[in-house]
Amino acid sequence: MSVPTTVFHAGDRFLPAAERLMRRVNKLPNGCWEWTGKITSDGYGACGYRGHRHILAHRAFYVEMVGPIPDGLTLDHLCHTLDTDCQLSDACPHRRCVNPVHLEPVTVAENNQRGGMSRRKTCPKGHPYDDENTLISNGRRYCRKCQRVHADRNSALRTARRAAARLTKQHSAGVR
């Protein structure tokens, strides 16, 4: 009787983590390491790592090749920060970069300041971020025109609810 010689294994899960991660990388001429595995809806690479089924790939690379990310810090993609022509959206190619040399641990506030939000010249509705139309509160920028539209809409909704409540109250009092 012959014994089968084929060895079955589940993919590459028995390879060292660094080798397994590098199998899903495309090294680009600009120095970025593009993640070719799963991509989240926000445009970041994702993978299984050290018993976690879902972790952002750039975080896995940093931990594997540099060391732990200090508590209270997040990773900033320096390649994104330096690229002033980036589209600043979920399609940003730098979100897929997992090169540990392009990653720096920073506070969330610093990451937001360096990132696209501070480089945008207009709000999502197209109003300019200028001295007259920009409100800064708790370190964040807000569009005054959009804030006014939001406040007016909420005020109109509150007025309509109050009117509906009065009519309901009057109707119930008259039915008795």
Provide a descriptive summary of the structure in words.
- Residues 1-10 have low confidence and may be disordered.
- This protein is elongated.
- Helix content is 36%, strand content 18%.
- The strands form 4 sheets. It has a two-stranded antiparallel ribbon. A two-stranded antiparallel sheet has the order 3-4. The protein has a two-stranded antiparallel ribbon with strand order 5-6.
- A hairpin with a 2-residue loop joins strand 3 (46-49) and strand 4.
- The protein folds into 2 domains: 13-119, Homing Intron 3 (I-Ppo) Encoded Endonuclease, Chain A (Alpha-Beta Complex), CATH 3.90.75; 121-176.
- It has helices spanning 17-22, 57-65, 78-82, 108-114, 116-119, 144-175, and strands at 25-27, 33-35, 46-49, 52-56, 74-77, 103-106, 134-137, 140-143.
- The protein is α+β, with helices and mostly antiparallel strands and 176 residues long.
Task: List the topology elements.
Blueprint lengths: L16 H6 L2 E3 L5 E3 L10 E4 L2 E5 H9 L8 E4 H5 L20 E4 L1 H7 L1 H4 L14 E4 L2 E4 H32 L1
Antiparallel strand pairs: 1-2, 3-4, 5-6, 7-8
